[in-house]
């Protein structure tokens, strides 16, 4: 192998564990965010359905 390439690879590969760890951390944070957002969305949909049902009951009671 070319000595210049060997030096470049040793420099780049030395920081590889940190780069991999950073990407893993970003991925984990993103997954937690997506899961939390999905759970909040489901909760909001349940509340909206209950509200729509209540409004329909009120409108039916007025007639």
Lay out the secondary structure.
Elements: H1 3-14, H2 16-62
Envelope shape: rod-shaped
Mean pLDDT: 92
The biggest sheet, with number of strands, parallel, antiparallel or mixed sense and barrel status, is: none
Q: Helix share of residues? A: over 70%
- End-to-end distance: 87 Å
Number of strands: 0
> Which structural class matches the secondary elements?
mainly alpha
Order of helices and strands: HH
The figure for the number of domains is 1
What does the radius of gyration come to? 27 Å
Strand content: under 5%
Keywords: Membrane, Transmembrane, Transmembrane helix
Protein name: Heme exporter protein D
Transmembrane segments: 20-39
Which tags fit this structure?
63 residues; mainly alpha; single chain
Gist of the model:
This is Heme exporter protein D. By secondary structure, the protein is mainly α.
Structure description:
By secondary structure, the protein is mostly helical. Helices cover 94% and strands 0% of the residues. It has 2 helices and no strands.
């Amino acid at each position: 192998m070319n000595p210049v390439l060997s030096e470049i690879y040793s420099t780049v590969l030395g920081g590889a564990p940190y780069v991999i760890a950073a990407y893993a951390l970003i991925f984990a944070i993103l997954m937690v965010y997506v899961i939390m957002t999905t759970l909040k969305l489901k909760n909001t949909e349940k509340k909206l359905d209950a509200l729509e049902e209540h409004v329909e009951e009120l409108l039916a009671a007025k007639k």
